[in-house]
Structures are given as C-alpha cells and as structure tokens.
Amino acid sequence: MANEHNALDIINDPKNRVTDAGNAGAGENGNDVGEPGGENKGVSRRNFLKFGGVAAAAATMAGAAGAGFAVGRSDDAYTGYGRTFQGGDQFFNREPFRCDVPVMMEPVGKVVRPEWTEYLFLRLRALVDIIKSGKWTPDMGVEALPGPVGDHYRARPGELEIMLESLQRNVKRAEAWKKGKNKRYALAGAYNMALRLGGMELPGHVQRIPEDPHDEHMRTGKPIPPEDWDYRGIWREKPMEFKSPKHASVLIKRMAHQFGMSLVGITKFDPRFMFKGVMRGMPDKGHYTWGDKVPEHWKSIIIFGVPMNWDGTYAAVGYSTSFDAYFRSRVAASLMERFIRELGYPARAQFPGSNYEIMMSPYVQLAGLGQYSRAGVVMVPELGANFRPAAIVTNIEFEYDKPIDVKMADFCKKCKICAEQCPSGAIPFDDEPQTVVRGFKRWKLNEEKCYQQWASGPTQDGLGCRVCIGVCPYSRKNTWIHAISREMEPRDPTGLVSQGLLAMQKNFFKFHEAEDYRSDWDGGKEASYHNPPWWMRAENFLEIEKDWEYHGME
Hints:
Blueprint: H1 2-12, H2 45-50, H3 54-63, H4 65-71, H5 120-133, H6 147-154, H7 159-184, H8 186-196, H9 213-220, H10 226-229, H11 245-258, E1 263-268, E2 300-306, H12 310-314, H13 323-342, E3 347-350, H14 360-366, E4 371-372, E5 378-379, E6 388-394, H15 408-415, H16 417-421, E7 435-437, E8 440-442, H17 447-456, H18 467-471, H19 480-488, H20 496-508
Antiparallel strand pairs: 1-2, 2-6, 3-6, 4-5, 7-8
Helix pairs in contact: 3-20, 7-17, 8-13
C-alpha cells in the first residue's frame, strides 16, 4: 500500500510535472511556471500592460540582446543536456495552453489518408529504381512514367522536372566532393557518416537500429505481418497490468527521458495520418501493396525526440547534420521497443530516416509537443524547429496528452525569415496558410525545390540543408532570454512582444542573401548563419591548406 500511495502522490501532485508532455522527470528539479490547468490561457490587455508593460519588457530584452547572444554560445544552454540530469529546469509548462484541436489541423474539406508517394524519400527511391530498371527514361516524359510515382507527378505539373534537375545536381555535388570539398568539410563529413553507421541505409550496411521488419523480409524473403513483428520476443503469457492509464503515461515518459530523450508526449493512434500502401516487412511488388488496413493493436503512439547539435545546425549547410539527433532518437526507440515488449505489450518503432508507416508531424502536434510552422516542420517551445522525433506504436492504454496552442503560428505569419533565407525558394511567403493538404489548410513546403538544395549542398551524402531551422527565431539554445521570450509571447494579448522580438531578431542579427548559402559551384558562397564550431574546422586539426573564407557570424 505504501508504494501505491507514493506512486499516486507523484502522479497527482500539481507541483510535479512528470505528466506534462514535455516535462517528464521534471518534478524533482523543475521550476514551475504555473499550476496545470486551462484557466489562464491569456490575460487581458489591461492587466498585461499593467504588470510591467509590453513595451518596457521588449525594451529590456532588446537591451539584453548582446548578453543573451553571448550566453547562447555556451554549451550549458543545450536543452537535453541541461544543468540537471533530466533537464527539468528547461521545460515549458504546456498545461495552460492545452486545446482540443491543433492549429491548422481543423479540417476544411474531406480528410484523406496520405499516399506513400507523399513522402519524398519513398518516391525518390522509387523514381531512381524505375530509371535504373530501364522501364522509363526522362526523355519519355511524365505521361509515360509508370506506377504511383507517375500518378504523383502527373498531378503536380513541373515537380518532376525539378526532381530530375536535383538528380543531376547530386552528381555534380559528388564530383565537387571528390575534387576538394572533402578537405574543407572532412570533420563534418566524418561526424555525419559515423552517426549514419548507427543504423541508416548505407551500401553493405543495412542492419538498422532499431531492427526493421523490411530488412528481415529482404533477408528471408518471407512476409512479416505486423501481428508477428510487433509481438516478437514477448515471453509473458499476458502483459503486466498498469494501475491506471495515468500510471502508464508517467512511467513511459520517465523511461523516454532515461533513454536520452529531451521531449516526450503520448496520443491516440489516428489512422488519418498513416500512409496508404506501406507496411514494412510485407512484399512491395512494384512498390508497396499493403493497402489501407490498420493493424488492430495500433491503439496508442508515443512521440519523443532530441535536438540536433546546436552549433552545427547554426552552421548549415555544409557543417550540419540531422544524423546526430537521428542516431539518439533511433537508439531510444530501440530501447523503448524492448522495454515495452518486456512488459508483455506489442511495440513497433517509427524512426528516421524513412522507417515509417506514418507521417510524424501530425502526431507530434496531437501529442502536445508543438505546432506547424511556415517551413512545414513542427516547432516546439523549447527547441523551435530543431527537434528530431521517433515514435513507438503500441496497444497500451495511456492518459493522452492534449495539443497546445502557444501562438507559434501567429509568429510565423509575421516573421517570414525562413522563407527569406531559403536558398531554394521552397518556403511560401503567404501571410496566412493557403494550401489545403488532405483536408487541412496550412503552409506547404515545396519538397522538390527543398530537395534540390539538399542535392547541391557541400555535403558528403547530399542530405540536408537546415538553413530554415538555423535562422528561425524559435530555434535557440535554452538561455535566460529565450526562456523569458517563450513564456511571455504566448501570454501576450497585444502582439507587441512578438513584434519586439521580431524587430530585435532582424535588426541585431546578420542575415545573408538566400543564394549565398548555395555551393560555390552553384553560384553561392557556401555561407552559414553562424561560422562552424571549432571542432568542425578541418584546418584546426588536419594538415591541409585553408583556401576558403567563412561567411557567417562568429
């Protein structure tokens, strides 16, 4: 009885924030912003101005910008690597901002499930396979392109031409890498590829972390339905019973942090955001024949993730990599999958780069971690767009987290920095979301244009740009000035805080012309938002001649 009493005390104590989507493990050292509950989503204009005044607050922040910038260069500011073991002093209290439906996820038309071709890397892989097989060549035109990939591009005039140009740029990028880029970016490339060996697809290396049913299917030639794969290794005759769904949520969130994750949320599995046609482990004759079936045991989904290395991300394009965050989120997914199955429940990891049956972004929002941004990725209060998630699908009954509305989308309407800085012109400038995507109105990233920058960036593998993430005002280390900003902005009914923050961002910080981020062979300067960190500068460690200049903030 004593253990039960203590567990309930931990769950029910409003001072303990382990039940918050982003705050698992924060109860021991967390600095609460406010009591959980939805009664204080905002304050009146009069009261907000009365308590200090927005203008005075904005002036104070502007005056402290220089100090905040200096603090922001410290490693101590990394969310996920904080002053306490679980980073409990760094999390945003989401409870006052819970809502029923995430921003830009209220249907405006018929909601349809996504086709697998809507995931860039699945359709890219299919297109390359078709070209290699000789079944189609570019001179045959889009009308002759066979299968679902052809259907996708016929419905989107002009995008196939962009993708074919990207494939040509990828060849030029590889040639530039061999001719000399491999020296300047030697350390960044080695770091990136070392992390890819942790489980990404590489020639001669297909053993992934976590294990993937597709790999097992390719090895054995046998179909592996989810009813088999998700239950593999379970030795208990029946699963261990949780005291309540709330107890299950508290435990799983704590374990996500134990396994190295910065943020975690849990929501009900929603089939609307599951790809049609894809089921890893099942045959894909001519690319994916699964159909529309949703496994009956897919009831809940756990979302967790970490930031990419901050200094590398600020130094995009050439010095950044998603794979350091991918590696950590994949490892956590592997550990969580095993932990859940040891308790007797089925578990299936959804993890980067393309080991999914689902679209991750909607679930990140439904789990209360963040909101859609102009750039088409999800931003979270603590990390902005610098968040790389993985997930576990299971049948455990949880107490689910609700979405949040912290006015990030309102800030995006005014900001447009990511669109202005995008070297490929892939991010829309529309003041309001205009595009209806599968029944939801939101900003829509042009993925073909985005990939074109990936394919021509000065990287070893042609993967990634991340300029939009690096320049985003929300994507900042966890400094005191960032903490003040993220607490004030969603509570401000006047809009003056966001205006002040945006003015400070655009006037106090240096930005390039968008084209400057491109490779030198592509008409750019290989600029970066910040200069690369000392440990990625090859000339600091290797016997090479430095014949380039850095174009970024020190």
